[in-house]
């Protein structure tokens, strides 16, 4: 049995929650250095190979998942066509991801609507957390994304977020088109 194959089996057995490098070393009775070296090889091999699965490493957490390009096909097998994230939640998550740490009021300013419900729902899904309090009146909570966010979107770090498009002012000089009130969240 090869070390890589053993580690791959352990990563698969860990399921969607993944497994820490330390746990892999304990279970396989290998040194942390050997585990890290072989995990890097598995990450590179799985991303380069023409397989439907990919092994990802986020810090010390290692996960196995389907490649993003097969998401729609996998959803059909799972009969899961409903996204967990509403458009309002996706918009809020995007703002947090690009501008973190960020307060609710700052998110509200960008969206133009109250984002309390979306922030609460994103917290309950484990995609964002409260990362502290801002040093301003009322000490509002600061939100940031989690490792689960990175895994869910197939990222290893925030540097892999696509660059934001350069906004051009509209004909009336505004940076964003006027918003229809029906697009926001009811609160």
TrEMBL record:
Superkingdom is Bacteria
Give the matching InterPro entries.
Answer: ScpB_csome_segregation (IPR005234), WH-like_DNA-bd_sf (IPR036388), WH_DNA-bd_sf (IPR036390)
Provide the coiled-coil residue spans. none
Report keywords, A-Z: Cell cycle, Cell division, Chromosome partition, Cytoplasm
Q: GO terms for biological process?
A: cell division; chromosome separation
Show the segment(s) annotated as Disordered: 161-187
Q: In its keyword annotation, does this UniProt entry include Cytoplasm? A: yes
Return the NCBIfam families for the record: SMC-Scp complex subunit ScpB
**This chain belongs to which protein, by name?**
SMC-Scp complex subunit ScpB
Upper lineage: Bacteria, Bacillati, Bacillota, Bacilli, Lactobacillales
């Amino acid at each position: 049995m090869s070390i890589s194959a053993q580690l791959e089996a352990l990563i698969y057995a860990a399921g969607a929650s993944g497994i820490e490098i330390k746990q892999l070393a304990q279970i396989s009775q290998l040194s942390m250095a050997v585990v890290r070296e072989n995990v890097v090889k598995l990450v590179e091999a799985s991303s380069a190979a023409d397989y439907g699965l990919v092994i990802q490493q986020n810090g010390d957490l290692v996960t196995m998942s389907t490649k993003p390009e097969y998401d729609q096909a996998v959803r059909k097998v799972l009969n899961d066509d409903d996204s967990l994230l509403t458009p309002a939640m996706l918009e809020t998550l995007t703002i947090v991801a690009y501008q973190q740490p960020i307060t609710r009021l700052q998110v509200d300013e960008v969206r133009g609507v109250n984002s309390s419900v979306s922030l609460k729902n994103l917290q309950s899904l484990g995609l964002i957390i409260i990362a502290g309090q801002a040093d301003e009146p009322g000490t509002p909570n600061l939100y940031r994304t989690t490792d689960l966010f990175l895994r869910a979107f197939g990222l290893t770090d925030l540097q892999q977020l696509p660059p934001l498009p350069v906004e051009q002012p509209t004909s009336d000089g505004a940076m964003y088109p006027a918003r229809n009130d029906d697009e926001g969240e009811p609160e």
